[in-house]
Please model this.
Amino acid sequence: GAGVSQSPSNKVTEKGKDVELRCDPISGHTALYWYRQRLGQGLEFLIYFQGNSAPDKSGLPSDRFSAERTGESVSTLTIQRTQQEDSAVYLCASSLQSGSPHEQFFGPGTRLTVL
Amino acid sequence: AQSVTQLDSHVSVSEGTPVLLRCNYSSSYSPSLFWYVQHPNKGLQLLLKYTSAATLVKGINGFEAEFKKSETSFHLTKPSAHMSDAAEYFCVVSVSPFGAGGTSYGKLTFGQGTILTVHP
Model:
């Protein structure tokens, strides 16, 4: 069956430009998560969706970061006025329900490079 | 608050020898603990999870981990390493939804990762 998909797989942009990253979760998964993985580091939690609401946005680094989700489907992560420190792999995960111990299934990630 | 410390950033073993990847956690509530593996250019894959049932957890590919509350540890082991085990491994903690409160519900906290190298 189809797993979590993300697009684009790679994105190179210039400093100051806006970027939009997309995540298609596994069908039927109500919970969706965004994480960021900087080079040589573990994953940092960004935001969690339950359906189309976001009960936990505590990991978003600044107001330049925002995310939306349409129902229990696609989510987009938008970074405005990108900075070089935004360069990272952005990973999306989905699970059947929110909360431990439900396994989160990860997408392949979007590698963002800000020049 | 919850946190995870992976004690080794790199571990190198010879094929056929045991593997030990160390992880210590901190959590205010009963945690769920996971090990994920990330092969080069591939997505994260769940190896195993502990959810307050048996303290010795068996996962895929011959890996297992033991939850030791007194030591706040969740070390990953495998009796005999295979070349295909070479990857980066992440220890992960998630606060139990029961009694956790607040918005940490379901949020995974990752360790910094341990790169496992397997020599022929």
Observations:
- Chain A has a mean pLDDT of 91.
